[in-house]
Amino acid sequence: MNIDILLGLQWGDEGKGKIVDAISPGYDIIARFQGGPNAGHSLEFNNVKHVLHLIPSGIFHADKLNIIGNGVVIDPAVFKKEIETLGLPLIELQKRLVVSTRANLILPGHRILDAAFENHMGGSKIGSTLKGIGPAYTDKVARKGLRAGEILNSDFKKLYNDRLKDHLTILKNYDFKFKLSDYEAGWFEGIEMLKKFRIMDTEYLINELTGAGKKMLAEGAQGTMLDVDFGSYPFVTSSNTISAGACTGLGISPKKIGEVFGIFKAYCTRVGSGPFPTELNDQTGSLLREMGHEFGSTTGRPRRCGWLDLPALKYAIMINGVTQLFMTKSDVMSGFEYIKICTAYRSGGKEMNEILFNELSPEPVYTILPGWNENISGLREYNKLPENLKNYIKLIEDQTGIPITMVSVGPDRKETIFR
Ligand code: GDP
Ligand code: IMO
Ligand code: MG
């Protein structure tokens, strides 16, 4: 069982990129299994911050193989831009990165459709990142997708034009103005960039390497509450962000999964629309946003902020089979006189702990704990953390029954405490 999974337990942006980078030295392979350039995974070392959208967060480690798995949707234009901004020689990246033949492509038409659909929804829009994710997965499931393995075919341009024709036909029903050339700009250049990389049946590669004893970390994107089945539907993304998604998104058996690392922020954030029971529309929410620099890594939108939601966390732990919890951004919570934590919901006069299908906005029931004032970013030993933070951690462990084995105290690779 030498495959571990790291995934988000909230609404995304839990700090997956930072932690994957920090624990990459313990693995041989780092693989993305779902999502696409809607993701923005930040990591920091040597005072430089990098934001990755499609490329796995192990890319800065020289001896690691990074895989973009079959479950990912790839926008070639974003791929090219990302390759060019990593600051690493192409020849080096060609060694470190492999792409699945079966990964579906995001076509220019998908991005236009995403924008047209959202525009049409008006006030009830999802708040999509407008990267074409929904339409690309729609075509995949409708068996109309174009896949990375097809870009080498001599009739690729024809396949592309057929898809484009379909997309333009749908767009006629929407009052949405667009300039195709704006969306196509860079896309075909991106295809040429993709061709420079090994496009392989990565399910064989993964099973052969892990079968021979290599260790792999599967890197989730988005978060459990954005999962298409278990998130706050319809305000979700279009893929399975949960641990099961790693099996379908990489071609691995559930029997091979070892640890499931569930990552969560010490508080909650959400970008885009949808229910958020512990949201703070007040001074405290603004303070969390300011202290935590809570602005989207992909779209720059301000993130909605709120207290930690334990019923939602427990739900995510259950769905994913989380074996260890990693808590990030605890440093951001320093300076609050008290900290609230949602330990139950109240709905129809009754207290409950479940995320119910038809009750997405229950009233939170809070437990109040004393805060801490110390700046903890410089700390590297668990025992030195403020007592009140340790009490906060203990309450979460007691309530979830899962150990918090890592506490992140800053954005840098080094600002990480393992217990
Ligand atoms: P991801 O999508 O889960 O990879 O998370 P993002 O990168 O979108 O958002 C997390 C943000 O918090 C990034 O700006 C990180 O650099 C930053 N970050 C990660 N861990 C910590 C931490 O423990 N403390 C602080 N202050 N920032 C962190
Ligand atoms: P990472 O991997 C936070 C949100 C969008 C929107 C909804 C659907 O960085 O954690 P989509 O573009 O997928 O159609 O948008 O999901 N969303 C994210 N929120 N972090 C992400 O990724 C997200 N990816 C999508 O804001 O509400
Ligand atoms: Mg992010």
Description:
- The structure is a single chain.
- This protein is of the alpha/beta class.
- It contains 13 helices and 20 strands.
- It has helices at residues 16-23, 76-85, 90-96, 108-121, 133-141, 156-171, 180-184, 187-195, 202-211, 243-250, 283-291, 310-320, 387-400; strands at residues 3-8, 29-32, 41-45, 48-52, 65-68, 73-74, 97-100, 104-105, 198-200, 216-219, 257-265, 268-270, 304-306, 308-309, 324-328, 338-347, 350-352, 363-370, 404-408, 416-418.
- The strands form five sheets. The chain has a ten-stranded mixed β-sheet with strand order 9-7-5-2-10-1-11-15-19-20, sandwiched between helices. Strands 14, 16, 17 and 18 form a four-stranded mixed β-sheet that branches. A two-stranded antiparallel ribbon has the order 3-4.
- Helix 4 (108-121) crosses helix 5 (133-141) and helix 4 (108-121) packs parallel to helix 6 (156-171).
- The longest helix has 16 residues, at 156-171.
- The protein binds guanosine-5'-diphosphate, 6-O-phosphoryl inosine monophosphate and magnesium ion (MG).
- Guanosine-5'-diphosphate binds at residues 8, 12-18, 40-42, 44, 293, 297, 328-329, 331-332, 408-411.
